[in-house]
Amino acid sequence: MADQDLKKDAVVWKGPESLKQAISLLEEFKLPGGLLPLEEVIEVGYVKATGYMWITTAKKIEHNFAKIKKLVSYSTSIHGFLSDKKIAKLQGVKAKELLIWAPVGQIMADADDAVKSVHFKSFAGITKTFPTEAFALGE
């Protein structure tokens, strides 16, 4: 499916308001607000009918989640499909594993609200689990 087809009927935010909207979307789908610690966000888009979302930034960033000692790289173009407690078919996010950058294909929060974990699944099928508080805003 072409990019324009995926973005049909999207709500789009641009400028300073767009980062707040990205955080709001994550929280609406019960994902931690600090999951995508982005800077210089140019555009955020969301298609309610399909869950398709995208984020465009001015530059690629690397962020170290100190509580879990994990380095994550965010491309200038991030996109995937949001649903309850999940981002599927994620593109533009990589996590450092030993000496290589592994693409993250899916992020899921626990279905049970009592258990506070976030699961990252690579395209190779490897899943890593971390405590939700590691992805709080400002971490």
Automatic annotation (TrEMBL):
InterPro entries hit by this protein: At5g01610-like, DUF538
SUPFAM superfamilies: At5g01610-like
PANTHER family xrefs: OS01G0652700 PROTEIN, T31J12.3 PROTEIN-RELATED
Name of the featured protein: DUF538 family protein
